[in-house]
Specification:
Helices cover about 30% and strands about 35% of the residues. By secondary structure, the chain is an alpha+beta fold. The protein folds into two domains: about 5-120, Probable inorganic polyphosphate/atp-NAD kinase, domain 1 (Rossmann fold, 3-Layer(aba) Sandwich), CATH 3.40.50; about 135-290, Tumour Suppressor Smad4. Helix 1 (about 20-30) runs parallel beside helix 5 (about 110-115) and helix 2 crosses helix 3. The longest helix has 13 residues, at about 20-30.
Length: about 300
């Protein structure tokens, strides 16, 4: 079992989180057995969460984040620029909890704590865009419009199914856009409805059938979807075969890169880990093994 001298357990309790007391009761007593000094803090706002991450990053060995993809994204963007970064453990506390799934973390809180403490620390890649960071994905097109079209009442009532409902609403509204991408040895150009730069394996709780995709290889995975027809879905599932090359694809583009430049589109809204940003930054790079995170051993 992993053991730590000092750890910060942080959660973001906002209005409407009636079950937070239950979540804490399921987790804190188990972590207390593996940590000599456990500090528990509630950050009631995004600004407070950012300040807490910066303040404690060089004071603790372990940073335990209880929250969904938005909370994780805020914490990562506060910790990643720092010179001293603690080990990070993610406890799934949101709707999709996508990057926690890429780390093999069970979605039951009680099971997640036990498995994390019996897991292993692994150097994990981070995507960097300008002064921002992402763990799971950077995307434009259909994914951005889907995030914007999610209805809060559906998300509260139906959970991850709300993303499916939003996608169905959005499909009829999505217009193709022109893309031009440059990487070290490749230039891609055409029209698409969706462009992903991927680090994690899950989007909206669904695992992507892409064999080489992993956040531990020092690479980002560029996936461009040209259409939503059956042929595109067939090609996506063909990527389960690691020997499939981009030249064999007609409805998709798929390559692995260490960095890339977005030549076009410029100025489109961007979705990073479920958070909407207003501008398309031209250069995206991977920071190999930039953060140490706890992975559940399979």
């Amino acid at each position: 079992m992993l053991h730590f001298k000092r750890a910060l357990f942080i959660y973001n309790c906002t209005a409407g989180e009636d079950n937070m007391a239950q979540k804490l009761s399921e987790t804190l007593h188990i972590f207390a057995q593996a940590v000599d000094e456990l500090i528990v803090l509630n950050s009631a706002s995004e600004a407070e969460l950012q300040l807490t991450c910066v303040k404690y990053s060089d004071q603790v060995d372990l940073f335990i984040i209880l929250g969904g993809d938005g909370t994780v994204h805020t914490c990562i963007n506060s910790i990643a620029p720092l010179s001293v970064r603690p080990i990070i453990a993610i406890l799934p506390g949101g709707t999709s909890n996508d990057f926690s799934r890429s780390l093999g973390i069970p979605q039951s809180l009680n099971e997640a704590v036990t498995e994390l403490l019996n897991g292993s620390v692994i150097e994990t890649d981070v995507g960097k865009v300008g002064e921002s960071y992402f763990m799971n994905f950077w995307g434009i097109g259909l994914v951005t419009k889907t995030s914007e079209n999610i209805k809060s009442e559906e998300k509260k009532r139906f959970g991850s199914i709300s993303y499916v409902l939003s996608t169905l609403r959005t499909l009829n509204q999505t217009e193709p856009f022109h893309y031009k991408i440059r990487s070290t040895n490749t230039e891609l150009e055409g029209d698409a409805i969706l462009l992903f730069v991927l680090n994690g394996r899950f989007i909206g709780t669904t695992e992507l059938p892409i064999a080489p995709l992993t956040p531990f290889d020092g690479k980002l995975d560029l996936l461009i979807v040209k259409d939503t027809n059956f042929a595109a879905f067939k090609e996506l599932f063909a990527l389960q075969d690691p020997l499939v090359e981009n030249e064999q694809l007609a409805e998709l583009e798929y390559i692995q890169v260490e960095s890339l430049e977005i030549v076009d589109p410029i100025g489109s809204k961007v979705d990073m880990d479920g958070e909407i940003y207003e501008e398309t930054t031209q250069r995206i790079t991977v920071l190999p093994g930039h953060l140490q995170m706890i992975q559940v051993n399979s």
